[in-house]
Amino acid sequence: MRRALLPIACLCAAFFAASVSTAAAENNGVALTPPMGWNDWYSVYCGVNAQLVEQTAEEMVADGMKAAGYDYVNIDDCWMASTRDASGNLVADPTRFPDGIKPVADYVHSLGLKLGIYEDAGTTTCAHYPGSFEHEAQDAATFAAWGVDFVKYDRCNIPYGDFPGESEEQVQQTLYTRMSNALKATGRPIVFSMCNPDPGDDPWQYGPSIANLWRTATDIQDNFGSMLANFEGTVDHYTDAGPGAWNDPDLLQIGNGGSSLLDYTTEFSLWAELSAPLIASTNIAALTHSELAIYENPNVIAVDQDPLGRPSVAISRANGLWVLTKQLSGGGRAVLLFNATNTAATISTTAAAAGLPTSRVYQMQNLWTNAVTQTGGAITAFVPGHGVAMFTVTTLGKRHARKLPSHTVLSLDAASPQVGVGGSTTVSESFTNVGVSDVKKLRLSLAARPGWQVKPLGRAGTRLLGAGQRFTVVYRVTAPRSGPPLAFSIFKGGASYDPLDGRRTSSATLGELVSSPVHAPLSITDVTTHRAAFGASGRSLAISARGLGVFNPPFGALPTDSYAAIFEHAACRRSCTAQVTVTSDPAGGTSGGAGLIERDDMTAGKHSRAGVVLFVNSNATIVMAWNGSGGADVDQHVAVPSITVKAPVGLRLVRRDSTYAGYYSIDHGKTWNPVGTVTVAASASRGRLDVGVFHASGLPTWTTTATFKNFRVR
Ligand code: GLA
After folding, report:
1. What is the pLDDT of residues 82-133, one digit of tens each?
2. Ligand 1 pocket test target in 42, 118, 126, 201 with most atoms within 8 Å of CB
3. Residue of the CA atom closest to atom 8 of ligand 1
4. Is 127 near ligand 1, meaning CB less than 6 Å away?
5. Residue 320 above 60 pLDDT?
6. What is the spatial distance between Cα 204 and Cα 210, in angstroms, rounded to a whole number?
7. Pocket flag, ligand 1, residue 41 (CB < 6 Å)
8. What is the pLDDT of residue 552?
9. 141, 526, 556, 696: which could join 549 in a potential S-S bond, CB 3.0 to 4.6 Å?
């Protein structure tokens, strides 16, 4: 089954890099490469104090972060006393910073590091400490006198009413310019970091001429969906950034415990491609070896800190498979293949598409494994879901090429990404040699979990695989006869081969979704834009889906009615009780989640009136949302304040005509706490209703799987 490798389509964006123009950058002489450092916010929020800052600085020296380039030690909100002194000067909170800020700055400086601080353009900060509004020059002078090297400047509580006729954005521009000028007037080189990332703000439009950084996306959370959203909100602003002026997709979350090492590796790689500030917002002292190794990867840091200061350009992104290329000062490119989906996939581009000059052969250095290989032009890798493959690619002379092994890719591809229990499909395992020299004695293998049958349909090896050739084996795979509602099963492919100078191995894994079918009286519906998967086993249910949800989130602008559900048609007469336990809910965004749903026509989505939902929201609270107006959408909601729930969560929805009472239980049904009692518009709660469980991942480009047990309607 050997065949020649098809030429990979050359992307037409080949010459984009040459045409990128960098906007006028802030000329205060600092942040010529993106700032690197630490910020306390996501490790302690308002718990900052002098000891934490000084100990973190010591830790950054001791654990190698300083040597790796991290030099800013930044204090976020809550460092201040609640009022200014009699002369209107800012003062530090006497308990948190008993000797004030200056001695902390002096200590941080004595370690060869720099100190950052936080303020706000409004009358108070986001946490309600004194803001710099109409104190800009005074506060800038205070910061300079203390020895501050970095000011993060927020946008909470701005008195917009004082600026009649001006848009919020115009007012922000005025106030940010004031502080920018005030900092310059102090004569101290201070990084000025704008923090005004609300939806509708476009700070990249005016930021480059007055600031070193501007936020491009809302406050990040420690999950893949949030990281992806902040990346997506930043990547297309590459022309706005350059030396002295950078897009800021927010603080790095690596180490905060909410994501996998794979996701953290991706976050770091993406931020480096974006030329984003690398500011760790975590407890530095508690980082594991592996987390520290991400922060200190010199190859990836070098991409971020490349003196040319050109953020990468996305040359393709179809179906969540991204190719980014970043021009480097030495003439090479940092190419990132990023798989934003949940399923492993081959991602490919070419050296020409990545902007490299024509050459017979190129060198690829894998920035995470350090492997160095040669390629005839194809830049390709089999990338796990959520993962990246990151390379620096340079042209290579023929003589040097002989000393390097060919770049090879082992990939797996299932004919169908989902099978029912007992069902079968085929998996192709391919080994591709994109280098300019032969690979010898190739052997392939495929392993599956117990209970699966795996049968190769052809030879599983070849003596010789020439340059540019691919070898494929197809296997018939058959799933076990029974299982949970939805289960990911893993296939592990292995290759053993000799590229040049001895045996090597490589491996690849692919997930296959195995579902147990949903039977009557339950039905399924999918009103998202991406195919959902469903499974049922007794009263345990599972839904794997995208979709923005049913709940109309606070900003109001996102579409609703985008979810997948398993439901019982017309199960609720005028009164009924629906109940379920949500056993996992990995949703993201602001509107994702999993829970109960009742509406007149579950399958019609937008084309029917929404009814009521009670669900575990992506930010781990319980939300009840309903159609109060009788319009098309859910337009009212209540959330249980100040709880953070972790699955399993019991949800109960009791209907009496158009009145609904919602309850939740976090002690396995022993106690049921009220969420709210609400009245749904009569037109959205007529007669019999469909009742079910629903899931929405909360982001249009992200699929997650929610699981449920004990679903019943009485
Ligand atoms: C805003 C900012 C955060 C953080 C907090 C502090 O939400 O976006 O980065 O500084 O304020 O209150």
Report:
1. 999 999 999 999 999 999 999 999 999 999 999 999 999 999 999 999 999 9
2. 126
3. 219
4. yes
5. yes
6. 10
7. yes
8. 62
9. 696
The values of phi and psi at residue 283, to 5°, are: -80, 100
Q: How far is the CA of 158 from the centre of ligand 1 (A)?
A: 14
Q: How far is the CA of 38 from the centre of ligand 1 (A)?
A: 15
Mean local confidence (pLDDT), 558-567: 80
Q: Which atom of ligand 1 is nearest to the CA of 197?
A: 8
- The pair of structure tokens assigned to 348 is 């490919």
- Please give the residue that has the higher pLDDT: either 101 or 343: 101
Listed in sequence order, the DSSP H helices in 63-167 are 65-68, 102-110, 136-146
Q: Is 219 an annotated catalytic residue?
A: yes
Helix (H, G, I), strand (E, B) or coil at 458: coil
Ligand 1 atom nearest residue 218's Cα: 8
Q: Which atom of ligand 1 is nearest to the CA of 127?
A: 12
Q: Is the dihedral of CA 245, 250, 254, 255 positive or negative?
A: positive
Q: Averaged over 262-288, what is the pLDDT? A: 98
641 — pLDDT class (breaks 50, 70, 90) = confident
Among residues 318, 707, 435, which one has the least CA distance to residue 545?
A: 707
CB 415 within 8 A of CB 387: no
* Token pair belonging to 356: 């490299």
- Residue 21 clears pLDDT 80, i.e. is over it: no
Name which of 315-319, 457-461, 623-627 the model is least confident about. 623-627
> Residue 554 above 70 pLDDT?
no
User: Does the CB atom of residue 213 touch ligand 1 within 6 A?
Assistant: no
Please give the average per-residue pLDDT across 533-542, as a whole number. Answer: 95
**Which of 442, 281, 309 has its CA nearest to residue 20?**
309
Marked catalytic residue, from 71, 154, 250, 561: 154
Does the CB atom of residue 126 touch ligand 1 within 6 A? yes
Coil, helix or strand at residue 585: coil
How close is the Cα of 593 to the center of ligand 1, in Å? 25
User: If you measure from the C-alpha of residue 77 to the centroid of ligand 1, how many angstroms do you get, rounded to a whole number?
Assistant: 7
* pLDDT over 70 percentage in the chain: 95
Centre of ligand 1 to C-alpha 22, Å, is 28
Eight-class DSSP state of 160: G
**Could you tell me which residues are beta bridge partners of residue 414?**
427
600 catalytic per annotation: no
C-alpha 37 – ligand 1 centre gap (Å) = 17
Instruction: Decide: 93 in ligand 1 pocket, CB within 6 A.
Output: no
Tell me which amino acid residue 26 is. Answer: E
pLDDT at 181 over 80: yes
- What are the CA-CA distances from residue 148 to residues 189, 246, 328 (Å)? 9, 20, 31
Q: What percent of the chain has pLDDT over 90?
A: 81
Residue 105 zone, left/alpha/beta (φ > 0; ψ -120 to 50; rest) = alpha
78 lines ligand 1 (CB under 6 A): no
pLDDT digits (tens, 9 = 90+) for 668-708: 999 999 999 999 998 888 889 999 999 999 877 778 999 99
Residue recorded with tokens 């509580």: 157
Contact 304, 74 (CB under 8 A): no
Distances (CA, A) of 504 to 67, 433, 442, 494, 497: 34, 14, 10, 11, 5
Please tell me the least confidently modeled range out of 386-390, 419-423, 456-460, 545-549. 545-549
Q: Which residues, including other chains, have CB under 8 Å from residue 126's CB and lie 6 or more apart? A: 77, 120, 154, 156, 157
Q: Which of 198, 219, 236, 601 is catalytic?
A: 219
